[in-house]
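Re: that chain you flagged

S.,

Sorry for the slow reply, it's been a week of failed gels. I finally had a moment to sit down with the sequence you sent. For the record, here it is as I used it:
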Amino acid sequence: MKLPRKVLLIEDDTLLRERWENLLRDEGYYVIAVWNRSLALNCLGKEEIDIMLVEEEVLSENSFELLAFARQRFPDMVVVVTGREENPSRVRELLAKGVYEYLSPPFTSSRILSVIRRADDHLTLLEENKDLRRKFTHRFSFAGITGVSEKMQRIFNLILQVSQVKRPVLLVGEQGTGKEMVARAIHRYAFGEEKPFVRVLCGATLQGLFQGDILRVEEGTLYFEDVHLLALPFQAELLEFLEEHRFGGRGGNVRIIASSEVPLEEKVAQGAFRNDLYYFLSVIKIEIPPLRERKEDIPFLVDQFLRDIAEETGRGPVRIDREALKILIEYDWPGNVVELKNTLEGMVILSQSDVLTPEDIPEHIRRGNLLREGVIGIRLGTPLKEVEKLLIRETLKAHRFNKTRTAQALGISLRTLYRKIEEYHLDEETPQKT
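Prediction finished late last night. Pasting the structure tokens below so you have them in one place:
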């Protein structure tokens, strides 16, 4: 059974207040009637209000403090304002502040009932949309990971499969693709929330790590993040730890998950990663796709992030217009999901509106779309060696210094690319971790 809407009526005219209160109660609404701002604020602090019918003078008192407090407490609450005369500029100002409707005399019973019924219908529509959104989000969200694309649906299935198998899992994907979220999802479906998830940063100094508290983990997941950054001496230590303490009969119920931002085969070929450790960790390998390869997920990620950001920042609902969303979809997102979320956070914080437009999008993203075909300007007569150096350098930058993808884009072998990088001293411009 649907509960009656709760209406807060604020009117200092005793006759009007009593007449409207009786009218709305006869219609089936739960009405709380007060006559000033102080009582209204007190009521809003204690009651769950759906609709506020408020006199204009009371609402605008003290720089709209009442409206600000009401919006903070109940973002979806419908506010109807009654005024003594209709000033078009004043009405526009109130509507811009989020007022649903403005009523001026005559205040007939039919007009009051009509606007409250419309407010009621508006709330019902909002609730139905939220319910549909929850159902839709649940369908395309898995352990906090959003994805409608075929690639992400496959990842969801793999998470369920590997969570039931006690073998090491290697997660491979670019920075910001959500490898840790996938690792935590595997842990959640393997153990629930009661067992520990221990995150080991392989890029940190790990001397003596495998003689410390980590040895006392009897159940749960050990997640070795960025294992490609592990120095060779520590790789041997890690391999010994894994073999002797976890799969040699003395370990408890512990799952091993490792992640890498680059294909470990590449590191093995360079002699920078032990092949025996690679084979040990990659019994099950899951490749997390970059965002540019699953762009159909972007609208859903944007929707989810905007709701999360609005909740975290205490703002009301924020949406994005069609043209701005199109720009975000067209961008390649070298920082992947993390970059998308951080970009949206900045847009929401800096925007003065509840609707994000192309003007709110950072310039480098708009410019990146204009240059996404990868065009570079070269002056006629430039020596071929300079052209080649420029082309290789800009292609490296475009692919975030991922050498495998750079070599593929240039149509050359990885070995040739390394030779050219050394020849043109481009290694001085390339981040060491790649």
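What I noticed first: DSSP finds 17 helices and 14 strands in the chain.

Talk soon,
D.
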